[in-house]
Design a protein that fits this description.
heterodimer; A: 259 residues; mainly alpha; B: 239 residues; six-stranded mixed beta sheet; 28% strand
Chain lengths: 259, 239
């Protein structure tokens, strides 16, 4: 378990370089470049706002729907894009895996860090929206950061598992797209939790993204925070990370043989 | 600590996964039979390489040379036996590996050097040497995808040759590039060799460069080590 943090010290510079590559390379040879980081969530926002605030109407406790949605959509986008690209990250670095030895988890970690930078940029748009709709955040909004850290743990755990699993069986990458779509609608992102039928809520809350998403909205807009489901999410996140990490480390030795 | 490479009764087998459909796969899983067959590619290999030695691995395709390099590099592990490598290893990476084609040559120097285990300060120290050796000053800020294969090879070689790692693996990379650059590389490798504190493991089919450059060679055939001796005797056996 001590090996958990060593790559951050011994391979700090490699991690930094791979993260930079993640960010830089993605938007090279593109006209608007980094603006894609903002254009993607904006387009999604426009679509969902149209569908779910004009066509269907969800009760959002007097918060403009766009703000209600954005507060959950941004963390979700981080979750989804990280997992989708982490699933392919080892396969894409096959040539490295066969040639140079370094702690392999540096590769998925660099994906997580790269997407984290995207997330921070996209957050800027969120603040512009807050000004536009004249919504003021609650003082507890700073608690967003520790809750988001829990989500990073969960995201990294899922990423480690899927990256290694996809190296063994390429079916995983196709499956992941499907699972993320289901997971998106199984979390209260475009709709409020209050619309979930009461008899299913307990099962619904088993999904760790439910506790996290609800907690984001609670701290940002000052609703009462439901500690028990956030705690559940935190426990699940840590367990998922441990499982993902141990699985990754266990199959790491055969990476070069199977890739 | 003196760098060294010790192989002791090393065996390596790979699992060959044959293409199978789910319909065929399921019964074999239920009956408990393995669905992948093992193929042994190295049988009982033992040797020791000490500081200052320059050793060539000679053998036909499939003899196990690349597998040995991978075992030394630490990217794969023996099925049985023991591999002990003391000292950091810098593989002269094959063309393209570790490079990103959308990034510029300059950015790729830092990326690739980091992959080879160098830190920022180490890279900055020898950055001008790397650039000068590659002779690519004017193309440094061009994306790598615009480079010819020869240019990419030159950049890769220039980076690898400047690592402080005591163990250097050279896997036929010299085959690419024009005659002048090949000569320059061999000259540089000879300089490194003459410092006497590094280990260079060299894989090549080119008899001349092996005889000129290495004082020891290992002849491999079908995963067995046939002889360990001077390059001249080896090549008499080989051809």
């Amino acid at each position: 378990m001590f090996s958990l943090l060593t790559p951050f010290r011994s391979h700090k510079y490699l991690l930094l370089q791979l993260t930079q590559k993640e960010i830089k390379a993605r938007y090279k040879q593109s006209f608007v470049g980094y603006a894609w980081i903002l254009l993607n969530p904006l387009a999604q926002l426009a679509i969902y706002t149209f569908v779910f605030s004009l066509v269907f109407r969800f009760p959002t406790n007097n918060i403009p729907y766009a703000i209600f949605l954005f507060s959950a959509l941004l963390p979700w986008t981080f979750f989804q894009t990280t997992i989708l690209s982490a699933t392919n990250c080892l396969v894409n670095h096959a040539d490295l895996l066969k040639k140079v030895a370094f702690p392999r988890e540096v590769i998925p970690y660099s994906v997580v860090l790269g997407k984290l930078v995207d997330f921070i940029f996209a957050t800027a748009v969120f603040f512009v929206f807050l000004l536009f709709y004249k919504v003021t955040l609650h003082a507890s909004a700073l608690l967003f950061i520790p809750i988001f850290l829990i989500q990073i743990v969960l995201t990294t755990g899922v990423s480690l598992f899927l990256a290694a699993a996809n190296l063994l069986y390429r079916d995983i990458q196709y499956l992941t797209g499907l699972i993320m779509l289901v997971w998106f609608y199984a979390s209260p992102i475009v709709y409020p939790l209050s619309l979930v039928p009461a008899e299913y809520v307990w099962a619904y809350k088993l999904n760790p993204m439910v506790g996290l998403t609800e907690a984001y909205r609670s701290v940002l807009f000052g609703y009462p925070l439901e500690i028990s489901i956030l705690l559940w999410s935190a426990i699940v996140s840590v367990l998922v990370f441990c499982f993902g990490f141990l699985f990754f480390k266990k199959v790491e030795r055969v990476f070069a043989d199977v890739v | 600590m003196q760098p060294s490479i010790i192989f002791k009764n090393v065996k390596k087998e790979f699992l060959l996964q044959e293409d199978r459909t789910f319909k065929e796969f399921l019964p074999s899983l239920l009956s408990g039979k393995g669905w992948a067959t093992a193929k042994e590619v190295l049988h009982d290999i033992s040797f020791t390489i000490n500081q200052g030695e320059t050793v060539a691995l000679v053998g036909k395709n499939g003899a196990g040379k690349s597998t040995i390099l991978k075992l030394i590099a630490g990217v794969t592990y023996p099925s049985s036996g023991k591999v002990s490598v003391i000292g950091q290893v810098a593989p002269l990476i094959e063309l393209g590996a570790g490079f990103h084609h959308e990034l510029s040559g300059y950015e790729n120097i830092f990326l690739n050097a980091a992959i080879l285990g160098m830190h920022k300060k180490e890279i900055e120290l020898c950055l001008s040497d790397i650039i000068a050796f590659s002779e690519l000053e004017e193309y440094l800020h061009v994306p790598l995808k615009k480079y010819s294969t020869g240019m990419q090879m030159r950049l890769a070689f220039s980076i690898a040759i400047h690592t402080p790692a005591p163990i250097i693996l050279v896997d036929e990379v010299l085959a690419v590039g024009d005659a002048d650059f090949q000569k320059k590389c061999l000259k540089r490798l000879t300089e490194i060799k003459n410092t006497g504190d590094k280990i260079i493991v060299f894989v090549s089919h080119d008899e001349k460069s092996v005889v000129n450059f290495c004082e020891r060679a290992l002849l491999l055939k079908d995963g067995l080590m046939i002889t360990d001796g001077s390059p001249k005797t080896i090549f008499n056996l080989y051809s």
